[in-house]
Specification:
Layout lengths: L15 H9 L6 H10 L6 E3 L4 H10 L9 E3 L6
Length: 81
C-alpha cells in the first residue's frame, strides 16, 4: 500500500502526532495473532480511519506493521452515509 503526497511536503514524522507515534505507537496485544488468523481463514479485510489524510493513515499503519497485511484503506472523508 503506497500513496503519493501531491505537495511534496507531507512528512507525518515531522508533525507533533507523528513524532509521538514514532516514540509511543505500538500495536495492541494480540493484533499480530488476529492478523494471522484472518489470513489463515481467508477472511476479507480492509482498514477504515478518520485520520485527516491518506499520508497520516499510511504512516500509522506502517508504524503498526500492517502495511503488507492491508490491501484497502477507507478514509472517513471519502465515505458517505
Amino acid at each position: 500500500m503506497h500513496f503519493m503526497c501531491p505537495s511534496g511536503n507531507c512528512d507525518p514524522e515531522k508533525t507533533g502526532h507523528g513524532r509521538l507515534a514514532v516514540e509511543q505507537l505500538n500495536p495492541v496485544d494480540g493484533l499480530q495473532k488476529l492478523c494471522k488468523w484472518v489470513e489463515d481463514h481467508g477472511v476479507r479485510h480492509a482498514a477504515g480511519t478518520n485520520a485527516p489524510g491518506v499520508l497520516n493513515a499510511e504512516f500509522m499503519i506502517s508504524k503498526l506493521g500492517l502495511a503488507i497485511f492491508l490491501s484497502s484503506l477507507w478514509l472517513g472523508v471519502n465515505v458517505r452515509g
